[in-house]
Amino acid sequence: MDQAQARAWLTTAVDEARQGLAEGGIPIGAALYGADGVLLGRGHNRRVQDGDPSLHAETSAFRDAGRQRTYRGTTMVTTLSPCWYCSGLVRQFGISRVVVGEARTFHGGHDWLAEHGVEIVVLDDPACAAMMEDFIAARPELWHEDIGAD
Amino acid sequence: MDQAQARAWLTTAVDEARQGLAEGGIPIGAALYGADGVLLGRGHNRRVQDGDPSLHAETSAFRDAGRQRTYRGTTMVTTLSPCWYCSGLVRQFGISRVVVGEARTFHGGHDWLAEHGVEIVVLDDPACAAMMEDFIAARPELWHEDIGAD
């Protein structure tokens, strides 16, 4: 896909991540765009805010989009490489494309998705990486909890 | 693990599936048991009831369990083989064991989980299989929507 389009869409996910941080949460945001480029859903990690470990940024955006008959042609945009949970979501529902803000601070399942035919765009965005680096340094226990690291 | 224990735990997941069916929903249920055998969370698919595609049975049980520092030693019990989304959940959070009611009507990611060190117990329970066979025959469009099949 067009990199300028990917970067434009990433701003929605970054806005979500910043909102999560402002709420005292984990700063990861995501947005789901339709095949026609319309925003279907957006959200951020809600572990702290809702005490809900099932709402990672991607699942939050997916939930916000509500029921859809097909995900063909859709794009999941996320500030951080998707973990196995969120990568499984993408694969199961046939989301066509994933735009990853950065994969420096965490390398999830995006290579696996690429092997299974999902188009992957890694933007290596410095602002996304800085946000996670700062957060992981400040709250390592919360970050480890969020990815199930003992 | 002990098969009698697995079958006993499966009844919790089956009760959840039946509750979902009684609500007009997709009859898949799950339960998360702790390393000490205590029930941590239980739930069922809520696509129809809540208009929420993110709540598969396993993610519903995981959510119900709330925040946990570790999933080491826990067991996810589900009436149906976990899809990629729910298999990703199990792998990411380090859930140790999955008890599968049946994998006849749908074969998800449990082989992949076994390759990655998760203990898998497939019970091939006739009641679980009959419940899904009846549901898929009655509501194929809803079933396909739930697994992202175009």
TrEMBL record, chains A, B:
SUPFAM superfamilies: Cytidine deaminase-like (SSF53927). Residues 4-120 form the CMP/dCMP-type deaminase domain. It holds the Pfam family dCMP_cyt_deam_1. InterPro entries: CMP_dCMP_dom (IPR002125), Cytidine_deaminase-like (IPR016193). It comes from the Bacteria. This is Nucleoside deaminase.
